[in-house]
């Protein structure tokens, strides 16, 4: 697969990853190399990655605990302290090997340590390959509120080796697939139609689809790097999806949802709202709901939980001037940004999902 250049960052695929990173390390002559992992990528991904590195530089491994619950400033402080203790300087390189938590947090750590050191992202989950790999968003959560603190800054390189997908459990694969489904809904019907038989997708299919998803997101972030207009469309399903994810994360009596699992619910809700407000075909909403629930199952959300979930909408990053702004669909491939939605319609969307 051809490499992709997006806003001064080159995204490489499979075998090209290693020739590119080795060339980059040699040319830049980094003083030290640090690799950030969690306990899972330390065990399943790091050995094969290091085996392919060609360098005489000192390599230090920094491990953090996995999971969204650890995507915090406190974790950053731990990594910053470790970098300092290991004598990292401004000519050091940080390589982040993991899912979105690792690449978002590791990117933020690199951008802020000594006012910025070089970093490379190696996404190892399907979600991080098609989402966190493009666009330069870095950051952490603020309590249970998603991605409230961060900066936009691109890594030197992104290395997408789809062999790492063989290490993933099925629920993580489904979570990543949700972002690809979103890319289909907001971009074009042709791409969307490739996902109509989700159970039959193979890893070979995914290689091509991942490349296409990255191209879709690359186009969006190139046109609108700082989320003023077009980039907002990438938040389809995320306004309510993030609120649901945050609510489940903050309630000990609920099972934590993976990002993609929450976004699937958010997309069904957004399709219903789109039908009510901007003319998205009712039958398409029903078809999308059936496809998603058949593949992902249904999340139980009681009516008593609608209000506290909706209360979390005020923290959405797209809000301005006190308005909660939704991304809706007029048709597949025709998103509409900055839509205002009455609470009554949101409640009806929840009821439609539950029905």
Produce a short descriptive summary.
With 355 residues, the chain is of the alpha/beta class.
List its salient traits:
355 residues, Rossmann fold, Dehydroquinate synthase-like, alpha domain, 2 domains, 7-stranded mixed beta sheet, two-stranded antiparallel sheet, 14 helices
Task: Show the helix and strand layout.
Layout: E1 4-6, E2 9-13, H1 15-28, E3 33-38, H2 39-44, H3 46-51, E4 59-64, H4 73-85, E5 93-98, H5 100-112, E6 118-123, H6 126-132, E7 140-142, E8 145-149, E9 157-160, H7 170-187, H8 189-193, H9 203-223, H10 238-250, H11 259-277, H12 282-296, H13 306-311, E10 326-331, E11 334-339, H14 343-354
Parallel strand pairs: 2-9, 3-4, 3-5, 5-6, 6-9
Antiparallel strand pairs: 1-2, 7-8, 10-11
Domain 3-dehydroquinate synthase C-terminal: 176-319
GO molecular function, one term: 3-dehydroquinate synthase activity
Organism: Mariniflexile jejuense
Explain what the structure shows.
Residues 176-319 form the 3-dehydroquinate synthase C-terminal domain. One of its GO terms (molecular function) is 3-dehydroquinate synthase activity. Catalyzes the conversion of 3-deoxy-D-arabino-heptulosonate 7-phosphate (DAHP) to dehydroquinate (DHQ). Keywords: Cobalt, Lyase, Metal-binding, NAD, Nucleotide-binding, Zinc. It is a single chain. This protein is an alpha/beta fold and 355 residues long. It folds into two domains: 4-168, 3-Layer(aba) Sandwich (Rossmann fold); 171-354, Dehydroquinate synthase-like - alpha domain (Dehydroquinate synthase-like, alpha domain, Up-down Bundle), CATH 1.20.1090.10. The chain has 14 helices and eleven strands. It has helices spanning 15-28, 39-44, 46-51, 73-85, 100-112, 126-132, 170-187, 189-193, 203-223, 238-250, 259-277, 282-296, 306-311, 343-354, and strands at 4-6, 9-13, 33-38, 59-64, 93-98, 118-123, 140-142, 145-149, 157-160, 326-331, 334-339. It has a seven-stranded mixed beta sheet. Helix 6 (126-132) runs parallel beside helix 9, helix 7 packs parallel to helix 11 and helix 10 (238-250) crosses helix 11 (259-277). It is globular and about 60 Å long.
């Amino acid at each position: 697969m051809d490499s992709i250049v997006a806003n001064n960052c080159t995204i490489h695929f499979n075998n090209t990853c290693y020739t590119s990173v080795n060339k980059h390390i040699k040319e830049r002559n980094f003083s030290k190399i640090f690799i950030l992992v969690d306990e899972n990528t330390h065990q399943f991904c790091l050995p094969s990655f290091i085996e392919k590195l060609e360098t005489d530089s000192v390599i230090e491994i920094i491990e953090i605990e996995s999971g969204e619950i650890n995507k915090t400033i406190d974790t950053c402080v731990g990594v910053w302290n470790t970098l300092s203790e290991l004598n990292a300087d401004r000519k050091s390189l940080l390589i982040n090997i993991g899912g979105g938590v690792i690449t978002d947090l590791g990117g933020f750590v690199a951008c802020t340590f000594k006012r910025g050191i070089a970093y490379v992202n190696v996404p190892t989950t399907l979600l991080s390959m098609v989402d966190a790999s493009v666009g330069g968003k870095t950051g952490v959560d603020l309590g249970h509120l998603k991605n409230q603190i961060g900066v936009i800054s691109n890594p030197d390189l992104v290395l997408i080796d789809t062999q790492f997908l063989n290490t993933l459990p099925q629920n993580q694969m489904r979570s990543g697939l949700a972002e690809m489904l979103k890319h289909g809904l907001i971009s074009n019907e042709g791409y969307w139609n490739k996902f109509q038989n989700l159970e039959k997708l193979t890893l070979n299919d995914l290689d091509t689809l991942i490349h296409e998803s990255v191209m879709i997101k690359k186009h969006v972030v190139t046109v609108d790097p700082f989320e003023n207009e077009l980039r907002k469309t990438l938040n389809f399903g995320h306004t309510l999806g993030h609120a649901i994810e945050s609510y489940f994360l903050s309630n000990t009596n609920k099972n934590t949802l993976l990002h993609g699992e929450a976004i699937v619910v958010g997309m069904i809700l957004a399709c219903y709202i789109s039908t009510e407000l901007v003319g998205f075909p009712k039958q398409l909403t029903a078809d999308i709901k059936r496809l998603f629930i058949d593949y992902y199952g249904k999340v139980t959300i009681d009516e008593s939980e609608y209000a506290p979930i909706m209360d979390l909408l005020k923290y959405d990053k797209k809000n301005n001037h006190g308005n909660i702004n939704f991304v809706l669909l007029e048709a597949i491939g025709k998103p509409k940004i900055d839509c205002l939605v009455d609470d009554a319609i949101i409640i009806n969307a929840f009821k439609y999902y539950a029905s």
